[in-house]
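Collaborator request, handled under Task 6.
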Amino acid sequence: MSIRILLVSISLSMAARSQTVNSQTPASAGILGQHELLDIEQFPPQQQAERLLERAISRYQGALDQIDTRLPSWAGKLAYSKKLESLIDIAFNSSELPVRAAAVELTLVSQRIRKEPAEARTLMDQIRSNSKDRSWRLWIVGLLASRGIETDQIRWFLFEFLRDSDEETRKWSVNALAMLGTDEIIDPLLEVFGKDPSMAVRERAGCGLAETGMMTREQRRKAIPGLMRLMDDSTLNQETQAWVFQALTEISGQRLGSDRAAWHSWNARP
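Structure tokens returned to the collaborator:
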């Protein structure tokens, strides 16, 4: 299993070139300079958003602040273009939560979604009444909840759809739930990980616990006791067991493979 929803491929030529460069040697100070800011100021909003998100992904100091400052002025002016979509996908897989938050904000702005309770309620009503575009709407309400819009109400709403008969609906309910970044999503995701009839849905639950979404690393550590119980569950199939070991590895940073005794020994340490 890949614990990420999305994988970014790198060309063989780039990989070959990278072998000749010391990865520990920075190419620049990584600061958004005044000269570049003046250039960005001349761009239309779409190019401003794309350039600043590129810089945020590359961890340039000041890029995230610039995005936050400019978001209100970009309302109604951004399109969810192929380039912006690609950058947003990369940002959602960043190891930095503020970069993921920027991806959320730019998704909402480019999709013309208002960060208001009324917008969230309308989307939830549409999800209940119409299966068309349900996956997309589930994802968007998860993004709204991640920004503090009707978070509790949306959490309970998404819990309902974890039991839906449709696999895609359950899958996107899991994806959306992971974006809330609260402790309350851990136990439901563990249950899905171990019990959902769809392996695709189980995989998304493992992703949400170990890597994707908006939980901090400390929050993810709270899933370890539940993952240990799943590790010892002899009723789980081989594929799910392998995913459990991978989730434990990604959360803990320990490389103990599928050695149950080693994991128990590690977990027992004070």
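The cover message to the collaborator said: "The first helix runs from residue 12 to 18. DSSP finds 16 helices and no strands in the chain. Please let us know whether this matches your experimental observations."
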